[in-house]
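User: Second chain of the day. Same drill as before.
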Amino acid sequence: MATSEVAALPRAFGGPGSGPGQFRAPSGIAVDGRGRVWVADTGNDRVQAFARDGALVRVLSGRLKAPEGVAVDAAGNVYVADTGNHRVVQFSWWGGFVREFGGFGLPRAVALDPAGRLLVDDAGLRRVARFDTRTGAALADTTEPISSPRDVADDGLGGVWVAETGNHRIVHFGASA
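Assistant: Same format as last time:
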């Protein structure tokens, strides 16, 4: 990234409140292929998307309750850890509802891997659940129960890193890092 591009980016945007572009307890964040910044605005029960310059682009709301995590795939589909409703919701790139993934205790974070799998940090059931995003089918969870998972990230090699706050450690599942 050129120095002039870095200088053009805002250092901060938003502020406290419930109006467009404002936040109440933002918790999850993702950047899509177009450079839009997606923010899980937990206290306002919505997800907001912003252009690189901080201008509001889109708001996903309605049936969300305390969303904590957000991820965006290469096609622009948005995945939201709808924590208060114990589910993960998939939206199309324009914001239309696609499907929901259920069976969670407390989904707090979501991540995507290059193979098209959705990784869900389920703190309520102390696991990392996996789903095929093309079919919506549930896949095998990670092999070891974990205490208080808080965030997940794909390692790019078919595995996943998990921030396990309950045991004050980072855990890796899958292929060697």
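The chain has a mean pLDDT of 84.

User: Great, on to the next one.
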